[in-house]
Each structure stands twice: as structure tokens, then as C-alpha cells.
Amino acid sequence: MKILKKILIYLLVVLAIAQFFGPEKNDGDFATVDSFLAETNPPEDVKNILETTCFDCHSAKTTYPWYNSITPVNYWLDEHIRDGKKHLNFSKWNAYSLKKKAHKMDELYEEVEEGEMPLNSYTWTHSEAKLSPAQIAAVVTWGKKVQADYKQQISTK
To answer: Quick check: 84 pLDDT over 80?
Structure first.
């Protein structure tokens, strides 16, 4: 019994010390998505969907929940954000070629249409990010139009 008590105390001390450390926050500026929004011109409802469901993990600015202050949860969130930005980063939209933009739009609306995005782990704690069928249809319609515009630009070059 003494060994179990020592192990628990040790784990509590390690957990307490770990609270003073954490990953670097994704504290950029929402203005970094302005060029994406200007170029793709989403309708207001789609813009609101993007802001509510996408930008936290796919841009340079994340609005963190209160539980991000808890280690190891903050490392788990950081990994989700890094992975999301690796796949699609709205803040770096201008750095993408037309071909890559067309491909990213294809991925965007397909992931939403198939229910893969937003992630379930995100919607569990962000109920406002759960998309209705009408919201999904709005994102898909907009995404297909933007992708078609990019393809048209590619074909005329």
C-alpha cells in the first residue's frame, strides 16, 4: 500500500509541475484570413460557418477554450491545430498555386459533405460547430463554385 501511495504522490507532483509548461499558442491574427475571404468571397452564412468551424485549426489564430490551460490537454489540442494547418492553412492561402487552391477547395467541400469535418472531437466541445444539412449544402455549393472558378483560371493560362 505504501508503494501505491508513493506512486500517486509522485504522479501528482509531476502533473502539478507539468502545468507550468505547454506548447506555443497559435496566437496569430485573424486578419491573416482576409485574403482568403476576399478571394473566395463566401456568402455571409458560409463565412460564419468557416469562422465557427474551421479557422481555429486551419489558420494562424485559435480561440482557445478554458481547458487549454491544462497539461496534457494543451498538447493534444496543439497537435490537432498543427495537423489541421498542415492539411489546410487559410492564413497561407496566397502562397498556394491556383492548382493547389482548386485542390484544397475540393478537399474542403468533400470533407464537409462526408461529415469528416469538423472533427467530432471538436464538435463535442463546440456544439455551435455542428453543421446542419442546410449548412453543409451551403458550404458544398460555395466550395464547388470557387473550385470551378479556379479550374477556369487554370485552363485559361
So the answer is: yes
